[in-house]
Design goal:
Helices cover about 50% and strands about 20% of the residues. By secondary structure, it is an alpha+beta fold. Strands 1-4-5 form a three-stranded antiparallel sheet. The protein has a three-stranded mixed sheet with strand order 2-6-3, with no helix packed on it. The longest helix is centred in the first third of the chain and has 45 residues, at about 25-70. The termini are far apart.
């Protein structure tokens, strides 16, 4: 069913050569061999380029996979210091009854943790006194507060954390509401 097409036009260069030198059929064979060699060379170049693109695609996929796998590697390495500090603090607390040393160790560990967080763009957020923002805060309760305008955070039960500008954990807060007016009994 497939029809084979015969070339309708030959390259002009070959036609010109054949017209100029009809007695040199050997030249046509040489030219045909040259063109076949050139076609084979171009085919080889195309195959090499395709193979190079495939290798590059695989390399990018492997690098992306490794980036996903080990994205937290630097952060985890920094957190190991904090974990070591906590372990040493617990060991010291078990061996010593000196509360001041235990508090000092806990403060140093917290300072180390804060340093790691800052290094990796993690910021804590204590929104007490700020306007309530449902995208960054989670209201745990509301209470009447005549000193603050409605929808103001009056207490933070748990700090929130952000990574750059993205919320990691919303702050758990108590939000003010307007005082309710006392019921006036009009029937009296």
């Amino acid at each position: 069913m497939s029809e084979q097409r015969e070339p309708q036009e030959q390259p002009e260069e070959l036609e010109t050569r054949n017209e100029e030198a009809p007695e040199a059929e050997g030249g046509t064979d040489d030219r045909l061999q040259e063109l076949e060699a050139l076609a084979e060379e171009r085919r080889d170049q195309a195959l090499r380029a395709q193979a190079e693109l495939e290798n590059q695609r695989r390399r990018f996929e492997r690098e992306l996979e490794n980036a996903h796998k080990y994205a937290m590697e630097k952060f985890a390495a920094e957190m190991l210091e904090v974990g070591d500090s906590l372990e040493l603090g617990l060991q010291a607390a078990r061996e010593s009854k000196d509360v001041e040393r235990i508090i000092e160790g806990a403060e140093l560990t917290l300072k180390n943790l804060t340093r790691v967080f800052e290094k990796f763009g993690i910021q804590s957020e204590d929104p007490t006194g700020q306007r309530f923002d449902p995208e960054r805060h989670q209201a745990m309760s509301m209470q009447e507060d005549p000193e603050n305008p409605p929808n103001t955070v009056v207490a933070t039960m748990q700090k929130g954390y952000r990574l750059q500008d993205r919320v990691l954990r919303p702050a758990m807060v108590v939000v003010s509401k307007a005082p309710t007016s006392p019921n006036i009994d009009e029937s009296a």
